[in-house]
Structure formats: C-alpha cells, structure tokens
Inverse folding.
C-alpha cells in the first residue's frame, strides 16, 4: 500500500503521466481515499501551472537592448548574403 | 494568442533569413529569455549574457541553414546549449546533477514516521492558475522564488513549463538523463508549491 510520503515523492511523475500503469493505479487508489494527497496533487499542479501564464525568467530591457544593438552592428557589417548557401545540407 | 503560430514562425524565419533588422529585433525580444535560461544552467549569469549575445550574432548567418524541423525555439536553445558545452569542455568544468532525494526537506518534515501526513497541505486551490496570477503580489513572489531556485532546477522548470519543451528536448538541451530531469522538475515544483502555500496562507512572500 502506497503511503502519503511515497506518493508525494512521485507526484510530478504522476502529473506528467510518467508512471507505469501499476504505479499509476496505486496512486489513483490512494487519491480516492486520502483527501490530503488529493489536495497536495491539486496544489502542486496549480503551482506549476502558474509558470505557464507567467513571464518566466523575465529579462531586463537593458539586456535585450544590448543584444539588439550588437545584432544591428553585425547586420550592418555583413557582406551581401549569397543566394545559395554552400554549407546547407538541403 | 495567434491562431497560426507555425505560420507566424515561418514568416519570422523567412525574414530572419533575409537579414531584416526588424525580424531580429522581434526574435531577440521573443527568444532571449529562454536562451538565457539555458545558458544560466551551464555558466554564471554574466557569462550567460555574453554567450547568448554571441549566439545571436552567429544566428545571422546560421539561420540560412535552419530547416524548421525542430522549431525555431528549440533550434536556438540547442545552439546556446552547444556553445556552453563547448566552453565547459575547454575549461574542464563538470556539471553535477546528483539528487538522491526526491522530497524537499521542508516538505519531508511534514510526514509522520508512518508515512502519513503530519502537517497536510493547508489550502485547496479553487481558483485557476490564471486567476491566481492576476494577483500581482503573487506574481512578484513567484519571480523572487524562481530567482532563488538552483540554476539547474530553474532552467529545467522554465524549459519544461514555460517553454513547453518535451522531456526529450529538455534532456538534450540540458544534457541530463531522463531520471535526473524528473527529479529536478519535482524538486523545483515542490519549492514553488511551498511558496504559493505560504503566500496564500500568510500573504507573505
Ligand atoms: Zn495520502
């Protein structure tokens, strides 16, 4: 019988569908009986989902500006691009 | 949200191939965050910025060889990862990703010896994640805690969650085994969970 602590250890694998069938079934059995673990899984999933809507790893505009400046410089010093690229593996 | 993200991407790629400056400006602001997340997994933040900047300059020419099999984002992330790995190879720095425990100590202490909860999760999230994020203070708190995650956990979480990469891609970009990735993701998620729980309960970050 799967205990709460053990379930907490594999909760992400359950959320991501990475458990074997047997393991998944024992998690589901446990969740039917244990509201604390239901709550844990629900909360863990919701916390993770926060990242999807979140502008994760926000970058300071100054960094973007610096890179853009560099790219602009490089673009302006670039010779005319040849039509066919000899390195292409096409 | 664009209804045809693929079309949008191929339009951008064509413009990049033509060397249009506006396209580079757009691409830099769209993709730099993810590229930095990759670089910071391997090197310190100052170095990471430099590497990402170098990569963008490389992209000016390399983009002509891009064929679109992997998607622009994945391609860019791989370029950054490869450059970091090359640099590490020359400086002989080893990346350690050894996690023996799957549970965060703070969470682990909330179980009885029997393996049942002693201090169960305190809250239920009845709100959707979107509704939670509308709380600006929580969003700031999330920023702060993401900043405090170990680099490798944060990169794994950001690539997997925010950039929606498949596990295989993340393993490839970060050069980790599937099982190490699982542990990194889980450790990072537990920390975010503990952060949100504290925030919901106390309003403090
Ligand atoms: Zn339980």
């Amino acid at each position: 019988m799967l205990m709460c602590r053990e379930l907490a250890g594999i909760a992400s694998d359950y959320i991501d569908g990475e458990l074997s069938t047997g393991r998944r079934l024992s998690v589901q059995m446990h969740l039917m009986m244990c509201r604390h673990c239901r709550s844990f899984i629900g909360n863990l999933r919701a916390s993770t989902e926060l990242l999807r809507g979140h502008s994760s790893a926000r970058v300071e505009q100054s960094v973007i500006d610096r890179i853009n400046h560099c790219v602009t410089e490089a673009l302006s010093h670039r010779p005319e691009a040849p039509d066919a690229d000899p390195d292409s593996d096409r | 949200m664009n209804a045809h993200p693929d079309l949008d991407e191929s339009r951008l790629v064509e413009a990049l191939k033509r060397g249009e400056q506006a396209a580079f400006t757009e691409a830099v602001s769209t993709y730099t965050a993810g590229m930095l997340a990759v670089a910071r997994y391997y090197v310190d933040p100052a170095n990471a910025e430099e590497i990402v900047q170098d990569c963008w300059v490389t992209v000016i020419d390399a983009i002509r060889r891009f064929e679109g099999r992997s998607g622009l984002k994945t391609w860019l992330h791989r370029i950054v990862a490869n450059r970091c790995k090359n640099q590490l190879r020359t400086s002989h720095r080893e990346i350690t990703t050894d996690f023996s425990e799957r549970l965060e100590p703070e969470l682990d202490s909330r179980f009885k010896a029997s393996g049942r909860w002693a201090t169960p999760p305190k809250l239920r999230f009845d709100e959707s994640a979107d509704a939670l994020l509308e709380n600006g203070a929580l969003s700031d708190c999330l920023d702060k805690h993401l900043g405090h995650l170990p680099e490798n956990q944060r990169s794994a979480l950001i690539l997997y969650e925010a950039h929606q990469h498949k596990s295989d891609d993340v393993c490839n970009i970060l050069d980790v085994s599937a099982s190490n990735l699982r542990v990194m993701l889980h450790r990072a998620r537990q920390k975010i969970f503990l952060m949100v729980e504290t925030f919901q309960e106390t309003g403090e970050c």
